[in-house]
Amino acid sequence: PYILPIKPKIKERLRAMRDRSLPASPNWYCSRCSDVSRGGLLGVGAKNVICLLDVSASTCRVTGELVGHKDLVSGVSFCQHEAQSHICVSSSTDGSVKVQTKTFHKNLNNDLSRQNPVSAVHWSPVDKNLVVSGDEKGIVVCHWYNTGDTSSFFPEPRTIFCLSCSPHTWNCVAVGYKDGMIVLIDVSKKGEVMHRLRGHDDEIHSLSWSPVASEDVFYSRPEDGEGSTTNGVSAAEEKGCYLASGSKDQTVRIWSTARGKGVTTLKLPYLKRRGSVVDPGVKERLWLNVHWPKGRVTQLVSSCFSGELMMWDLAKSGKQRWTLFGTSSEGQNHSRIVFNTSSFQLPDGKELLISTSMDREIKCWDLASLDCCWTLPTLGGFVYALSFSPVGSGCLALGVGDNMIRVWNTLTTQNRYDTRSFWQGIKSKVTALAWHPTKEGSLSFGTDDGKVGIYDVFSNKPPQISSSYHRKTVYTLAWGPPVPPMSFGAAGGKPSYSLYSCAGEGVILQHDPSKLSGDASDIDRLIRDTNNIKHKLSPHTDLSWKPDGKVVAVGNEDGCIDVYQAPSLKLLCSIQQHHKIINSLRWHHDHSCAPERHSLLASGSSNATVFVHDLHSVIENPPESPVVLTEPYRRLSGHTAKITGMSWSPHHDARLVTVSYDGTAQVWDVLEEAAVSNYRGHVGYLLSVDWSPVDPDVIWTGGKDFTVQEWNVSKQEFTKPPKGEHLNLLKKKKPRSMLPLSTSMDHRPKEELLQDCITLASVRHSDGETHFTVLRLVPFMLVSEEGHVEAGHFDSVVYLRLWSGDLEGALQLATEKGELNDHLLSIAPMAGFGVWSRTVEAFVKQLCLQEQYLKAASHLLSINKLYEAVDLLRSHKLYREAIALVKARLPADEPVLKELYTCWAATLEKDGHFSAAAKCYLAAGASFDAAKVVSRKNDVLSLSTAAGLARISGEVDLAQSLALRCAKHLAAAQDWVGAQEVLSSQDSLLVSIIYLPFCVCFSGDVGSKKHSKTLHLSEEAKAAAGSLQALVCYHRLYEFWWKNSASSQEIHNGLSCPEDEAEDRVMNGGPSREKLHPATGRLDILDFDASLLLSEPHAACQASQRAVKEVQEHLNNMVLQHSQGQGGQLDAGEKQDDGPRQEKDFQGSADGDHSEGQETLLTLSTKMSSCQKELAELPDTIKVQLPTKH
């Protein structure tokens, strides 16, 4: 049920074996788009086919293609088991996974319509029946080749970039994702994740397993520095295998699959290239491919920035760790990034590596010498033109749609694919080529954007570009003799050849090759003047100069071919045999033995028939007036689609090859009008052809399939083109007719159609002209409407009603059948406002069913239903768009805005997006809810943010609670600095801040390296902490004193004891760590530091305060004495017996002052200032917390 018969066209292509071929370029940006089988068969995904190449010999050879995918091939993998080594599996962005060989193909998808684009595929090296694929949605699918069963897993909701099956255990698969994650899954346990390997920061481009199933090599240098054991089990005891990964982050990492950790990281070096160095600051385009060759345990191959390949020696370090490929000679490396590498071993033991690159080259490398063995160029676009040089034998020029020209030396013996590429100055598809007839190496080209230029293929100079551009694509280039005005003064050194170009706008320009910077001339002006033509000339589509330069044939858009005589371009004849656009014109070569053959002109147009015209008589005996030819010399019929190119054989008389849109090349014997050989090796239509100038049996063709193929005429199985098969594949499906009955009338027999013409002419010239037209049209419309209704084509019925003027009926039918569209809605206002409004509402319901909610809301706005539009967006959880709509249309205090924010916040909170929910709560004015939702995550950062949010919002109690919770988490982690910062933000948590230093001291984390920051306290907090610490110390000293007092001798009241003296010594700065017991005389050691009770700053503060107190007392005494002396003089009438006493007191005071050092007011003031200055310099906390003693 799974093996399908191969299609006939595939068999034909496989039988049409060609000698040489340039294949299509391998697809870019795919992790495994090429692979090599055990027997040396290389499969390369190119567009939607798989190109097969035999690389087992000293050179490569294209052997065929495998088709079947409808979109780009994203992965190719051969089965590595000997019995199935000829089978490969391929994946595509069309969602299909196929197993194919040259004889059959097998579809592994059960339901193609539901498949996502497949991005990676791999055939298990261990299990010959297991194929694993991954798609862009993150789904991994296991396909069992023998039974056709599948099983799907969804390990991660990420985009899969690559995957690789283990070469040692069948059930282990490594999956690389776009975001840098690597996941190891067990497919035997329903895709259970074994390890998640984190380390890369960007896309995983490639994965490669070590060829050895052990992890003994690199454990001496673990990347994470955690030793070589995991959970108590040594690495040697665990079963595992190394895995290499290449990422866009410019690193290659080696992983231990046993431990799930990185072992080593390889950073790509910045290499000098072409005299310059890669700037690390400039982000280079990079694809990092890795490949672990079999049998090389410590050697890993990887790509680099600019196409270099390097071999890493994992046993070494430093710059000696890597070696570049291709250093023995210049030009061996790729010039752009490498996408895929794969290796295989020849029977003689030689190991080869195959690489594909963005430079469109496939290279083969010798892993022993790291030198390039051969290079195969590939093509990245349609092959629009093929042309052999008339001077350099075997030099084939290719015009390709990848904006490059290739020049292939097809006769070289050393390198069968010796090509050179030219790209400077082109910048567009190369659609036309023409070699100079006599000047070697001079190649003219035309491009898709209308550019014409000339390359010297033997120099490295950029091309000469004509200053005259065509407006459309250049289709044909031809060298011919100059015609006026360029032919004037030819004897004065003018070139003997001019370059003629014909482009899509229908103009032929003549360019001077010696002065392309000059203006080109339009030959139509000369044609008009010479032939006295007044009417408009038909647009030109092709031209061909006869090899002797006497006449030129010009093909036109109307199918006519005009033949002009040089140099005046006098019209000799007009060939009117084709009825469609002329695509190709070719003159027979002039080295034929029969002179009459020199005047044969072959023409091909879009009507699939090739005509050959004999113009010998017209050229040899020019008529006085132009003649019209209506019958061809020979008619070549067989192609089923339009002719795109042709070429005469330079080795035969009257033998022609033509290529067509039917996908084949046909060789004709013109004289016999017989088909000789038909080549069917291409996929799609052909565009170009040329006959080999050295081998009569070899023809080269190019086409839509991005390939150039060399094939032998005598080795083809078929002689004629296939009948209808290729044409049917290329024919576009015609749209359904609006008037099927009328259309069917046009498909009647030819006799009836001709009779209709007679009838119509008769009626038209009678009085019933108008009635005839109406009577024929109205029944057609009525019957057509009924037929469309029966067939369910309601869109056609709607348009028929519109044409008949029933707009409201058309809108009603479209509404009922769900066929409303933007066009119908745009014309609905013609039926009135009410109809338009109802139509809009119906269209809104239809759009909602189609899940086009934004468009539906926009249409509601058109009928001024703003709140309904907001409700529609809110009901489908499009809160962001609803809020934007409200802000754009309504004032800022609109209540619905707060409701939207609240609903959005509740949804976000339910989905676990707490930070976004908090923003919505804040926008709605619910600060308390915002703080609560932020704190729900219950980590340090969330709690700290929530506490700050609550504090700013004025929620003091909530802020304190959250700050304490956060400080508790930080304290549990011994992050004292973080805890202090959190508590310091809350003014009312001073007690907790004071308590924090004690936690640090008691935890023993003072010198911890985990948090190296210093715990900083404010001055007020430091003072409070010091006071609290002293109080605790006093309390402990008091307990110590009472404990020792209870065991000492009896203490009598009123007597001091030795313990008191010891305490006094401690308080007065004596020994703090020991005391002498009075009874036993032993030395007891204190279990705390009593020196904390002593403080130099506090002592200095107390001394300054005492000095200030003494100075104040002295000043008070002096003021008192002075006031008493003044009072004695004023009270002279007092009793006399008081005088002696007062005098005595004053004398005593004077004596006292004298005894105290004769302190004066000045000295006391100086003392007071000094003491106050000392007090001012002391912190306020000391002065406040420790007042001076009295």
Automatic annotation (TrEMBL):
Keywords: Repeat, WD repeat. Pfam families: Beta-prop_RIG_1st, Beta-prop_RIG_2nd, GEMI5_RBS, TPR_GEMI5, WD40. Residues 1018-1184 form the Gem-associated protein 5 RBS domain. Residues 1123-1166 are annotated as: Disordered. Residues 782-976 form the Gem-associated protein 5 TPR domain. Signal peptide: none annotated. Coiled coil: none annotated. GO terms for cellular component: nucleus; SMN complex. This is Anaphase-promoting complex subunit 4 WD40 domain-containing protein.
